[in-house]
Design goal:
Blueprint (H helix, E strand, L loop, with lengths): L6 H10 L3 E4 L19 E6 L5 H10 E2 L2 E2 L5 E3 L4 E4 L10 E2 L1 H9 L11 E2 H4 E6 L11 H18 L6 E3 L15 H12 L11 H12 L7 H20 L1 E2 L8 E2 L2 H38 L5 H4 L5
Parallel strand pairs: 1-6, 2-9, 2-10, 5-9
Antiparallel strand pairs: 3-4, 5-6, 7-8, 11-12
Length: about 300
């Protein structure tokens, strides 16, 4: 028997697994706990929504509808790979299912065929709804499948479960088909690999790491740091100044004139124009780096049609 994670622990587990999380409203306190138990929890259930459009899908899973009030899951996994947290606690997603399947999930053994709907799954399962029409033709983007893998693995890791604790709705309740478009056996294999450390994630970088990298790139260009460039300009300026202070007498006895002023001003202009070209090149490199850093920072946060038949 497992006590449900606290909302904060749930969020932390997702982020630690590299999930891009979006917190929607007061998700921590949005639940159906007043109509039934939440826990003990034994597994994670995956659904498809039979909807399209991320914003509308998230909102529907959050509020539900007249026949089935929300939340309709804990997290909505949209096609862009983000996980939108819409509720926490008891949620209307699993409905009634087969007690033999629940026993197999607890034991993490092979799942039997589901032929009963007598056990309340909303008590025992975390639920993730995944944006998809569920027609077998709507594609599953790679980033969405990866988010499903990461989200399920996050919960399993937090509880000390294996991939056998993750099931699809179609494996729980007779007549259900979701998720359609990939197999749960394949997904469990991916989750098992992740839990075993057999995935090749990008190295996680902290904000401090990213700042340090950005500064190093900004501050170094073709072997010169900004201080070096600044010093070169200053030295050139003073060199010109010294020449300007060198005076030659005029034949008519007037005030002495500056020595080669025009030549040295031209030399200074040449240095400045050269620096301008270097700065433009550096600006281009920084723009490229900014895109790469932003990409790193963004990584490593309702089966509505079917759910309409589920009890609250």
């Amino acid at each position: 028997m497992a006590t449900p994670l606290s909302a904060d622990a749930f969020l932390a587990a997702l982020r630690a697994e590299g999930v891009t999380v979006v917190e929607v409203g007061d998700w921590r306190n949005h639940n159906r706990n007043h109509v039934g138990a939440w826990g003990p929890v034994h597994g994670v259930m995956i659904h498809h929504t039979v909807t399209s459009g991320s914003a509308a899908t998230v909102e529907l899973c959050r509020v539900g509808h007249a026949d089935l009030p929300g939340p309709l899951c804990h997290g909505v996994i949209t096609k862009d790979g983000r996980v939108h947290l819409v509720g926490y606690g008891r949620a209307n997603h699993a409905g009634g299912g087969d007690p033999d399947v629940l026993d197999a999930v607890i034991a993490e053994t092979a799942l039997p065929a589901d032929n009963e709907s007598t056990t309340d799954g909303n008590t025992h399962f975390y639920g993730f709804e995944c944006e998809n029409l569920g027609d077998g033709e709507d594609p599953w983007p790679a980033e969405q499948l990866e988010a499903i893998e990461r989200a399920a693995a996050a919960v399993c890791r937090a509880h000390g479960w294996g991939a056998g604790s993750v099931i699809g709705h179609l494996e729980w309740q007779p007549g259900k088909v979701d998720p359609r478009g990939f197999t749960m056996n394949d997904m469990r294999g991916r989750i098992a690999d992740r839990l075993a450390g057999n995935t090749e994630d990008d190295m996680a970088l902290s904000e401090e790491d990213l700042d340090r990298i950005a500064y190093k790139v900004w501050s170094y260009h073709n072997g010169s740091y900004p201080t070096d460039i600044h010093n070169a300009v200053v030295q050139t300026y003073w060199a010109v100044g010294e020449k300007r202070d060198s005076r030659v007498p005029r034949e008519d006895g007037g005030d002495p004139v500056a020595y080669y002023t025009g030549d040295h001003v031209a030399a200074t202009n040449g240095v400045v124009y050269g620096l301008r070209d270097q700065i433009e090149e550096l600006r281009t490199q920084l723009a490229t780096l900014s895109e790469q850093v932003n990409a790193l920072s963004a990584r490593p946060t309702a089966d509505t049609a079917d759910a309409a038949t589920e009890p609250a």
